[in-house]
């Protein structure tokens, strides 16, 4: 899937039946862009960074966050259901693999989740105004392009 700011190619049992115990995504993020804030409801995520430089921040259920810098050859790990995003901090495209011990690839976008939830509930819980709510996307963005 090619989108503004990069692309994501997913391989799992839905497109490759032999992949009954593994799913993967090859992700490319253009400079300044990011893999949107999301989490995986089905398993831990292992990452292998192929090219470029990136920064990942992960948010745990205990209310703590950790930030890690990566470059080609590095390995990353995100525990099951942990919210995280990865930004390209370099001048070249960032390419990395996301891998899962699962037959299928699944992720939940925070932006999309909020947009599809009852507006009043989101506004009351997060103290958001109408303008902010209007900017939420009901479709999954996957990659957010950098600002020029």
UniProtKB/TrEMBL annotation:
The entry's keywords: Metal-binding
UniProt keyword Metal-binding present: yes
Domain of life of the source: Bacteria
Pfam families to which the protein is assigned, alphabetical: Cupin_1 (PF00190)
Coiled-coil stretches: none
Ranges where the Cupin type-1 domain occurs: 3-134
One of the record's GO molecular function terms: metal ion binding
Family annotation (InterPro entries): Cupin_1, GPI/OXD, RmlC-like_jellyroll, RmlC_Cupin_sf
Name this protein carries in UniProt: Oxalate decarboxylase family bicupin protein
Lineage: Bacteria, Pseudomonadati, Pseudomonadota, Alphaproteobacteria, Hyphomicrobiales
């Amino acid at each position: 899937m090619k989108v503004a700011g990069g692309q994501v190619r997913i391989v799992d049992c839905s497109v490759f039946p032999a992949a009954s115990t593994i799913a993967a995504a090859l992700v490319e993020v253009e400079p300044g862009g990011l893999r949107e804030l999301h989490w995986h409801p089905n398993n831990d995520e292992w990452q292998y960074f192929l090219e470029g430089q990136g920064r990942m921040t992960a948010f745990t259920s205990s209310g703590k966050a950790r930030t890690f810098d990566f470059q080609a050859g590095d390995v990353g790990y995100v525990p099951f259901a942990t919210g995280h995003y990865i930004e390209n901090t370099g001048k070249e495209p960032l390419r990395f693999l996301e891998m899962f011990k699962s037959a299928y690839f699944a992720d939940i976008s925070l932006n999309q989740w909020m947009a599809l939830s009852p507006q009043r509930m989101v506004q009351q819980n997060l103290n958001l105004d109408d303008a902010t709510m209007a900017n939420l996307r009901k479709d999954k963005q996957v990659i957010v392009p950098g600002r020029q």
